[in-house]
Design goal:
36 strands; about 35% strand; alpha+beta; elongated; 6-stranded antiparallel sheet; Jelly Rolls; Arc Repressor Mutant, subunit A
Length: about 750
């Protein structure tokens, strides 16, 4: 992990002895904190910022280390006939700020891997120390590193040497509040060895779910009742199932080893570093208490603070062959793919949060277990893609909120009170995460409020809402996003209805509602004026003003007389035609001034610049001269040529064209291309989107008289093809902005 070096800081090396062992300490210090009287050597040139202190006779212990590594090093003593020498090495780490355990573990692991890389391994101790100092300058999270070396009297063979052990420390306050330890992967274990330093009352929770201890949890308490008893409980503060007298089993001044096992449907606890020795607790689990242990949490209560230290074997890269490098690259790609899959789950649920069980259910556990998933979530949190709003529940975070763009995110229980002028008059509704990003890129002076609830009913659909409030031109606007529920159509419907009801209730000055997003176009290869391409925009406006703007197909039956289909539909329209009139005016202006840049083309370019650093690319994908229509229920397709425009000035490649017509929906229509085409011809349908019937019904129920559906085309089905989704969402958002500016 290499980062920008802070020029105002220096790395200070101090060598000395402690408990008869050689110790070298590397401290990160601000230039004003360095004691120049103790400095022996100041490096210059490429090593500027590295200082070496005079030797210290006795290095103080200081505060306890937050992590450490232990390993054996094999050397050859050239002065004694190449006699083998074995040293026991301990690397201790301290960190700046309060990073979580996974971040600490990743940081010191990467530091160690770079330090010990055999491709450029130092030739001697001095070169080794120099490399350790140089690396520390780039690992800004590390505050201090100590290297302790002790020569082993009896040299063991390298084959018998244990692998590198890493230790992560967790400090618990004198409050009975559990701290989860996601850096310890419990899924692959049946026992755990660890150390505790506490006067009494050390609590260990073994749970089936990260972040949730109220069910499927077994609690082990060591040194309870003033360090006299230990017990196993059925749940947090539950019934005692096993108990033993353990006088003075804990110590407040030294770390002591313990182990816990949970294999073979029994919980066992013992004292000592060797699993199986010193057992003092055992509980055979009944059938109704047997579940997979996937999570670990620890605590001390109000009688004592504590320190827990957990050991893990660390995999050290030793194979640098081309084959090994390819394998590592493949693992990195798979790791990135898992991250992307998780982000998609969080984006669909946004603004609702997701827990570990939620994500595992939606991803069907594809090469994911809860331990791995938590590690991935912690990485995404560090890179500011997500935020853990409460233990075990994560929320997707928009990129620009953390990167100095002036776009703030505020988690609130209640929305702030807005005065009359601050009240939005236009609401913009999206469904996909990329649609929300595209719409927000069109809004100036914006603040995003996530109204997040933490009650027990937090999983109920529509509990959380997101509102981005800002301006477009002279209008105050608010944008929101529907939370998608791929596993439940009914949940999605309830969520959509609740979202519309709440936004119109919270912002009672809203006059116009714009539904902005992506859809699947209806191809007309033989008719250029009615044909739509990927990236084009369809506006829900018909030539006959009384015709419906949006038509939902609820049922399809075969015509008993003819050979066609009969459709049961639900049409939607609005009484206030202000938005449609403005859209017609825009069309007229563009046709008259066809040589001038169209306003939405300008907004697309501006949006791409704003969204340039998003994880998703909003650039226009490479176009294909052919269009491909998927047949019915299989993946085969029919290819057609896009039609050629009748007039030369109509031929504008790589820019969106605007089409007008009704938008259709209905899951039954997505199953057959024949019915979709037939329904489009009969009902003047230009595009099909995901089912927005519930949104439009809610608009009707809340007596909204003015709405417009604006859809960017990303495929020829229903807008679910991901390649064109971001760009299509941006074209729809850009047209939306042009419409609002023209109001």
């Amino acid at each position: 992990m290499t980062v920008n070096v802070n020029e105002s800081e220096e790395i200070v090396l101090t060598a000395g002895k402690r408990d008869s062992k050689a110790v070298v300490r590397l401290d990160r210090r601000h230039v004003t904190e360095v004691d120049r009287g103790k400095v022996h050597h100041v490096s210059g040139g490429p090593y500027k910022g590295l200082l070496i202190n005079k030797k210290s006779q006795n290095l103080d212990n200081g505060e306890p280390a937050e992590a450490r590594l232990e390993f054996l090093a094999y050397l050859v003593n050239k002065d004694h006939n190449n006699e083998p020498v074995q040293d026991s090495w301990t690397l201790r780490f301290w960190f700046r700020g309060k990073p979580d355990g996974i971040t600490k573990k990743r940081t010191f692991s990467q530091y160690f891997q770079e330090l010990m890389n055999p491709e450029n391994f130092p030739k001697n101790y001095m070169c080794f120390m120099k490399k350790a100092m140089i690396l520390m300058k780039t690992y800004l999270l590390i505050k201090r590193v100590e290297l302790e070396v002790e020569q082993v009297s009896k040299v063991q063979s390298p084959e018998a040497t244990p692998p590198v052990k890493s230790f992560v420390s967790l400090f618990t306050p004198d409050i009975y509040q559990y701290n989860f330890v996601p850096e310890i992967s419990m899924n692959t274990k049946t026992y755990l060895t660890f150390m505790i330093k506490a006067k009494c009352d050390a609590h260990i929770a073994l749970s089936a779910n990260y972040g949730e201890l109220h069910k499927k949890t077994i609690e082990v308490v060591i040194g309870a009742e003033h360090n006299t008893r230990s017990m196993i409980k059925d749940g947090i503060e539950g019934s005692v199932r096993a108990e033993a007298l353990t006088a003075n089993v804990l110590s407040g001044s030294e770390l002591r080893y313990f182990w816990i096992s949970w294999g073979d449907y029994k919980i066992e606890v013992g004292r000592g570093s060797h699993y199986g020795d010193g057992k003092f607790l055992k509980w055979n689990l009944p059938d109704n208490k047997r579940f997979d242990i996937t999570s670990l949490a620890v605590a001390t209560d109000n009688t004592s603070h504590g320190q827990f230290e957990f050991a893990e074997l660390m995999e050290v890269e030793t194979d640098y062959s081309k084959k090994a490098k390819k394998s590592r690259v493949r693992k990195q790609i798979l790791w990135l793919a898992k991250k992307q899959r998780i982000l998609h789950c969080l984006e669909d649920a946004y603004p609702n949060t997701q827990s570990v069980p939620d994500i595992l259910t939606q991803t069907a556990g594809r090469n994911l277990d809860s331990g791995t998933l938590v590690m991935l979530m912690k990485e995404l949190e560090k890179s500011q893609h997500v935020r853990e709003v409460e233990i075990g529940r994560w929320l997707r975070i928009q990129y620009e909120i953390h990167h100095g763009t002036g776009h703030d995110l505020k988690l609130v229980k209640d929305l702030p009170q807005l005065t009359g002028r601050e009240q939005p008059t236009i609401a913009i509704v999206t469904s996909l995460y990329c649609e929300k990003l595209a719409v927000d890129a069109m809004i100036d002076d914006k603040t995003t409020f996530v109204k997040y609830k933490t009650e027990v009913r937090r999983s109920f659909v529509g509990e959380s809402q997101v509102y981005t409030i800002g301006t477009i031109g002279r209008f105050k606007v608010v944008s929101t996003k529907l939370s998608r529920h791929p596993t439940s159509n009914q949940s999605a419907r309830i969520s959509a209805e609740n979202t519309i009801t709440r936004i119109l209730g919270s912002f009672n000055k809203v006059e116009h509602v714009l539904l902005v997003g992506v859809a699947g176009g209806v191809p007309m290869p033989s008719n250029y004026s009615h044909h739509v391409r990927p990236g084009d925009v369809v506006v829900s406006m018909t030539t006959e003003r009384r015709d419906p703007m949006y038509i939902h197909c609820a049922r399809i039956t075969h015509d008993p007389i003819g050979r066609g289909y009969v459709y049961t539909t639900r049409p939607f329209s609005c009484r206030n035609k202000t938005l449609q009139n403005v859209s017609m005016s825009l069309e007229s202006i563009v046709k008259t001034e066809w040589r001038k840049p169209r306003p939405w083309d300008i907004y697309i370019e501006e949006g791409q610049e704003i969204l340039g650093k998003q994880e998703t690319s909003f650039k226009r994908p490479s176009s294909d001269k052919k269009l491909r229509i998927i047949r019915q229920n299989d993946s085969s397709g029919i290819s057609f040529e896009h039609p050629i425009p009748p007039m030369k000035h109509d031929l504008k490649l790589g820019v969106p064209h605007i089409s007008y017509g009704a938008i259709g929906s209905g899951r039954l229509l997505s199953r057959t291309q024949v019915a979709r085409t037939d329904f489009a011809i009969k009902s003047n349908i230009r595009a099909y989107d995901l089912d927005f019937e519930a949104v439009l019904e809610s608009l009707e129920g809340n007596r909204n008289e003015s709405f417009l559906v604006i859809r960017g085309i990303c495929d020829y089905i229903d807008g679910t093809t991901k390649d064109w989704q971001p760009y299509a969402a941006l074209t729809a958002a850009a047209y939306m902005k042009a419409l609002v500016m023209a109001l």
